[in-house]
Amino acid sequence: MATRSRALLGKGQDQGFTLIELLIVILIVGILAAVATPLYLGYVKDAKTAEAKAIAGSLWTAAQSNAMARCDNNTDVKDAYPKAGFAADGTTSPARWTVTQAISNLKVTCATGALTPDATVFEIDGVAADVSFIKVQLVYNSGNTPPSKLRCDTGGGFVDC
Question: What is the pTM of this model?
Answer without folding.
Answer: 0.79
